[in-house]
Amino acid sequence: xxxxxxxxxxxxxxxxxxxxxxxxxxxxxxxxxxxxxxxxxxxxxxxxxxxxxxxxxxxxxxxxxxxxxxxxxxxxxxxxxxxxxxxxxxxxxxxxxxxxxxxxxxxxxxxxxxxxxxxxxxxxxxxxxxxxxxxxxxxxxxxxxxxxxxxxxxxxxxxxxxxxxxxxxxxxxxxxxxxxxxxxxxxxxxxxxxxxxxxxxxxxxxxxxxxxxxxxxxxxxxxxxxxxxxxxxxxxxxxxxxxxxxxxxxxxxxxxxxxxxxxxxxxxxxxxxxxxxxxxxxxxxxxxxxxxxxxxxxxxxxxxxxxxxxxxxxxxxxxxxxxxxxxxxx
Length: 330
What we know:
Layout: E1 7-10, E2 22-31, E3 34-42, H1 45-66, H2 75-81, E4 88-89, H3 92-107, H4 117-132, H5 142-148, E5 157-160, E6 165-168, H6 181-195, E7 201-205, E8 208-212, E9 221-226, E10 234-240, E11 243-249, E12 254-257, E13 260-263, E14 279-284, H7 287-298, H8 302-309, E15 316-320, E16 326-328
Antiparallel strand pairs: 1-9, 2-3, 3-7, 4-6, 5-6, 7-8, 8-11, 9-10, 11-14, 12-13, 14-15, 15-16
């Protein structure tokens, strides 16, 4: 499952010329298991309403394709249901997401693995049980985790882009693209808005932000990275345009056992929640890749995450280390 950490938007309201476009905002909380906010500058409310309908219509459509717990007649849910039963015709966006997952696995040396669904299902079940009955909260069985890990080989995910098919060759394999799906979807929605002629907007989907253009008279959108605790304190604010800002952290989705918190970002090597850093924020011109990088950098020591970020042209990294220091990768 994909991680969520708060990102605040510092939106400037400008005074002066009456011809300035006006700021509008809309939000939904029923898609991708997070709050999604669209903010834009438009000439009038009708223009923004059409823009919002397009954006959230696309988010809803993509949610249906990428939700592994959704209807088993489409998208990833159908692929998982047909594991071990040969190649399956997939929607183009699903094939693109799966290709990103395989690319991310190679780039991060396996730290980001969308084929870890069998392991993540055990952690998800433990978290749900703990939330329902905190007094009897328990970790997933270690032996069950190790057995599930035997069904997470990314090589058992076979893609044929020419034929438009995907295949899970292991019948017990399960795709969970939570580490990349939200960022990828946010990028697709931004593409749809741009192709429709909309400019000067920002999408905030949990820990995933896409900033397009800028408010009137500004150089970009102000995006604030928040502290990974309940304080809501801004650690820093940056001005960005035409790029993604994605933060990974583990303080919003977690459960406690004997006073110890266990979040949902699971390290494929240990099969336990990662504790390398407190949060990792990536700025990148590709929203899906920013999601991949932030997930991986959250699970890596500072020196290794700095080396990883240098593999992607134009990407920037901010890490909040375990000492509470906000460090920018060189």
